[in-house]
Amino acid sequence: MSIQLIKALAILKKCAATVNAELGELNLEVAKLIDKATSRILKGEFDTHFPRATSLP
Question: What SUPFAM superfamilies does the annotation carry (predicted)?
Fold first, then answer.
């Protein structure tokens, strides 16, 4: 999986958590934790933790 896709999914999760918290569908504390984690992903702090295929079979 490309790092661009991982970061795009992090943006999606971050936005979904924000909206769901505003709608009262997600606990605010959980939304804050998701926001913190996705921000760290977007900064590249975990890039080495996401294995990526280097060649196609």
Answer: L-aspartase-like (SSF48557)
pTM of the model: 0.82
> Which of 39, 30, 53, 31 is closest to 10 using CA atoms?
39
Overall domain count for the chain: 1
Tens-place pLDDT, residues 36-46 = 999 999 999 99
Query: Domain containing 33: what range?
Result: 9-49
Q: Under DSSP, is residue 6 helix (H, G, I), strand (E, B) or coil?
A: helix
Q: Letter for the amino acid at 14?
A: K
56 domain residue, yes or no? no
Tell me if 57 is assigned to some domain: no
Q: Which two tokens stand for residue 24?
A: 């009262």
